[in-house]
UniProtKB/TrEMBL annotation:
Pfam families: Arginase
Cofactor details (free text): Binds 2 manganese ions per subunit.
Keyword Ribonucleoprotein: no
Binding positions (Mn(2+)): 94, 117, 119, 121, 195, 197
Gene: speB
GO BP annotations listed: putrescine biosynthetic process from arginine, via agmatine
Coiled coil: none
Protein name: Agmatinase
Species of the source: Novosphingobium ginsenosidimutans
Family: Belongs to the arginase family. Agmatinase subfamily.
Entry keywords, A to Z: Hydrolase, Manganese, Metal-binding
GO molecular function: agmatinase activity; metal ion binding
Cofactor: Mn(2+)
Amino acid sequence: MLTPTFHLIGLPTDCNSSFARGAAAAPKAIRAALWSDRGNLAAEDGQEIGHDFLLEDHGDLPLTETAGDDAIIRTAVTESLNAGAIPLLLGGDHAVSFPVVEAIAARHGPVNILHFDAHPDIYDDFEGNPRSHASPFARILEAGLCRRLVQVGIRTLNRHCREQAARFGVEIVPIADFSPGKVAVLDGPLYISLDLDGIDPAEAPGVSHPEPGGLRTREVLAVLHAQTGRIVGADVVELNPRFDINDRTAILAAKLVREVAATAARNLR
């Protein structure tokens, strides 16, 4: 059996952020934590980078923070898929998920999406910007790129977003009385989108929009590890190193990269 290969691709952009910029610096911070000697390359199930699966670092894309960046992202993801790899994207703000999913759906057809976040990111537009980091899933859904969107950790659902969720049939797992067993196990092709502000700011302080009352890391991992569908791509987004404390959020992001890759590798076997 071939060893699963993942391409780590950095997306250093935050031009669609709505409050504080800084997420463009996240890929460098996540890489530093991922390859640091303070930890090792093993996931919790015992699989190891370089042994049970390969994680090839393809660096950061030369993004220009213009409308042309979407095409650059789509091309890079397509090239990764053409090479037989599974793309793992390091944001950057959450706006990057739209062109990534565009490229993946062009190959695999409409995907199921498991989305961890404090915010639903389904605004029709936010502050006049339809490509805002608060809008990527509205763009994904209206383009027919997603069969099923399950959102976990949401705790900022305003009237407009409730209307959008009803319009698109989004499945939002209530954060009140949350338990990992309440989250569906999704069929593949499956895309995982991990916005770090979905996790409680006590554990992930390095984000632009901290929202108390969030998921714990163990809850996120329990949901992720329960997934059995074929994972065809993932992103980890919205780390803002400007607000991080002792690299805690970057270290968490690096762990999530390992765990997503290990889960995807397991599900291919």
